[in-house]
Recover the amino acids of this structure.
């Protein structure tokens, strides 16, 4: 008869860290994408000054109006669009959420005559809540 010999239990425990590394890499990529989208939404503009203001509720559509009086750039979600593109983008945003607020961010050095066509396009698209972004003094 053959005797069985018992093997000692190993004192070292091996932990598989591959799933943890996968999760960490997914989180890193997620935060990189979210950071990029957030920086596109808040373009570097010199906003007009105001004494008070309200924070918008919900997920607003942000329209950035930049440039000079000669060449105006309208940027929505990081994409430069013309005035007709702004009208179409506002119409699509209102189709998703009719009560979504629209925030127009314009450089303080721009003349209001440059910003007015953007506000008119928002109104013509059916927007009822249009706000102009300002900085607190």
């Amino acid at each position: 008869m053959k005797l069985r010999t018992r093997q000692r239990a190993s004192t070292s425990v091996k932990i598989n860290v591959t799933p943890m590394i996968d999760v960490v890499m997914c989180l890193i990529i997620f935060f990189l994408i979210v950071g990029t989208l957030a920086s596109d939404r808040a373009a570097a503009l010199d906003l007009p000054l105001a004494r008070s203001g309200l924070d918008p509720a919900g997920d607003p559509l942000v329209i950035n109006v930049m440039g000079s009086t000669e060449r105006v750039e309208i940027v929505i979600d990081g994409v430069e669009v013309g005035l007709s593109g702004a009208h179409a983008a506002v119409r699509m945003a209102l189709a998703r959420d009719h009560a979504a607020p629209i925030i127009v961010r314009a450089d303080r050095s721009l003349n209001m005559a440059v910003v007015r066509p953007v506000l008119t396009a928002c109104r013509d698209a059916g927007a009822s809540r249009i706000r102009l972004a300002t900085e607190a003094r």
About this structure: The longest helix spans residues 18-41. Helices lie at 18-41, 83-96, 112-124.
